[in-house]
Structure prediction request, 399 residues.
Amino acid sequence: MLSKDQMNAIKQSAPLLKAEGTKLVTVFYQNMIRQHPELLNQFNKTNLMNGSQPEALAATLYQAALHIDRLEELLPAVKQIAHKHVSVMVKKEQYPIVGYHLIEAMKEVFGLREENATLLAWKAAYDIIANIFMTIEAEMMDENVKQTGGWADVKPFVIKKKKQESPSLISFYLVPEDESELPMYKAGQYITVQADMPGEAYMCSRQYSLSDEHHPSYYRITVKRDGHVSTFLHDEMEEGDVLQVSMPQGMFCLQDDIKEPVYFISAGSGVTPMIGLVKTAAQNSQTFTMIHADRLEDVNAFENEFERVLASASYGRIILCNEQFAQSGKGELVEKAASRIDRPFLQSVIGEGKGQFYLCGSPVFTQEIIHHLKELGIPAHHIHFEAFGGQSTKEIEVV
Prediction:
């Protein structure tokens, strides 16, 4: 337990973390990776280079400082981060490495001496927070291994099928090299894919949402040509090639005990987790509405699949949006709207808006939709989101 004085010292560091947190974390990552380059096996290098990973950790440290006397309020965020840690195979023995370099970065960036009360308080706090993460992650890893067909870390998967969905989107059907049955997963979860890329000293890791409901023999991911690993998958990986794949993780899933209507709102590659979520809602006989916006060449990628979902749904509505459509209208079942997803359009679709809302897209898109929903009177606890592009809690706020 932290003392009252330690908690006060950490709380008093919150303004400094808000102002200089990104600089602190950037130095932390630079120093840690310089001494432990093997950790590059686990990081998304693009997010490290573009600053989104430092932004995310800086925001987490700031929130920890604000809530150090009531850490239980951060438990949902802790669990979300823990899912990511398990997916990229963070090990218990790596936590002391992280702690050491974080404290050293605080000394360097904030000019704190070894005996400084704030630094000592953060040392103690890090040990407590690290133990929380290690406990949760150990339980999650144990559950993964205990599942029928489950495994630890990654195992080899063969690309069974590579399907061009649109000019920018390719679906990869991945099957275990050992032909074992796959464990259950929830629609909306993601896997880590590791690729051994030429010219790279370490494995290149990237998380991709599973773009279908559960199937016992394959995983499907749908990859947009965007970024180092995704471009490599598009251009270099063919049917029969092997990728290393983790167990599915993530919390962006339908709530089992909710029977009210559900709304799925996505843009760009944010459609990928929505496909499985829509299918799950249809199977559960839930009333659902999906709104998806994308570039003109990509927005129709899964139209036929969505038509089949609607054909079997008790009540469902799917709207594809693009301002360049010649006109709004309706296909056999799927609707098309010559519009962007702005507040008037949302209001016209959701009406009173009673239900649960699931959002997925870029951080900018997600924040914009959250803002519109709040203006339309949607309670924060009814809004659930997954943002692509290395989002952080600093960038996306619900409350």
Remarks:
- The first strand starts at residue 154 and ends at 164.
